[in-house]
């Protein structure tokens, strides 16, 4: 099966630095994953595995990274079908006036509770907007993500989840790599 693993918070501002070549080498030596590809330095790993227990795969990748680099990195894994769903169901893609470089996807480690979603809905992020679909958040940053109050940290605190975000260009490239 083909999978995508998203690592949270590596190579950001010089912290938790991991070269993707070194990460590929580490995971290849583990014999845990096959046909490993990485995409850019933000921790996107496309791979195949005979293992189908995603939770166990996440733990094993986390452990290999921790043992090598001695820091915690959250790992989220999605199979190709899950990624296809996310890619094809972005509600903001239908709006013609949106700039593709302002679209992002936020991937949560679990589905947030209805109570926490209600708490998040009370926060005014305008002109930015979001839509939650299970453990995914589609986001649109009207003036760019760097100027927004709508951040991963806010999502994590209000929804009580761990999350990582990717811009739509990265999501699209990963979709292409998963389909090859």
Tell me what the structure shows:
- By secondary structure, the chain is α+β, with helices and mostly antiparallel strands.
- The protein is 36% helix and 24% strand.
- The protein has six helices and eight strands; from the N terminus they run E-H-E-E-H-E-H-E-H-E-E-H-E-H.
- A four-stranded antiparallel β-sheet has the order 2-3-1-4, sandwiched between helices. The chain has a four-stranded antiparallel β-sheet with strand order 6-7-5-8.
- The relative contact order is 0.17.
- The model has no long low-confidence stretch (mean pLDDT 91).
Question: For the report, how would you describe the main beta sheet?
Answer: 4 strands, antiparallel
Number of strands: 8
Low-confidence stretches: none
| Top CATH class of the largest domain | Alpha Beta
Instruction: Classify the beta-strand content into a percent band.
Output: 15-25%
Termini gap: 13 Å
What is the CATH architecture annotation of the largest domain? 2-Layer Sandwich
Q: Structural class, judged by helices and strands?
A: alpha+beta
Strand order of the largest sheet: 2-3-1-4
Level of helix content?
Answer: 25-40%
The topology string of helices and strands comes to: EHEEHEHEHEEHEH
Radius of gyration from the alpha-carbon trace, in angstroms: 16 Å
User: Any idea of the CATH topology of the largest domain?
Assistant: Alpha-Beta Plaits
Q: What is the number of helical segments per DSSP (H or I, 4+ residues)?
A: 6
Domain module tally? 2
> How would you describe the shape?
globular
Taking all residues together, what is the mean pLDDT?
91
């Amino acid at each position: 099966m083909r999978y995508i693993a998203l690592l949270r918070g590596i190579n950001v501002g010089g912290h938790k630095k991991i070269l993707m070549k070194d990460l590929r080498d580490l995971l290849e030596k583990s014999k845990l994953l096959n046909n490993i590809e990485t995409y850019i330095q933000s921790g996107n790993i496309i791979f195949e595995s005979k293992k189908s227990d995603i939770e166990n795969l996440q733990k094993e990748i986390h452990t290999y990274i921790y043992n090598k680099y001695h820091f915690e990195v959250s790992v989220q894994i999605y199979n190709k079908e899950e990624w296809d769903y996310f890619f094809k169901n972005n509600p903001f893609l239908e709006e013609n006036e949106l700039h593709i470089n302002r679209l992002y996807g936020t991937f949560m480690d679990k589905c947030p509770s209805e109570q926490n979603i209600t708490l998040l809905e009370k926060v005014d992020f305008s002109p930015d907007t979001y839509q939650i679909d299970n453990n995914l958040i589609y986001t649109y940053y009207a003036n760019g993500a760097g100027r927004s109050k709508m951040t991963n940290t806010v999502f994590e605190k209000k929804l009580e989840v761990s999350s990582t975000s990717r811009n739509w260009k990265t999501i699209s490239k990963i979709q292409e790599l998963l389909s090859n």
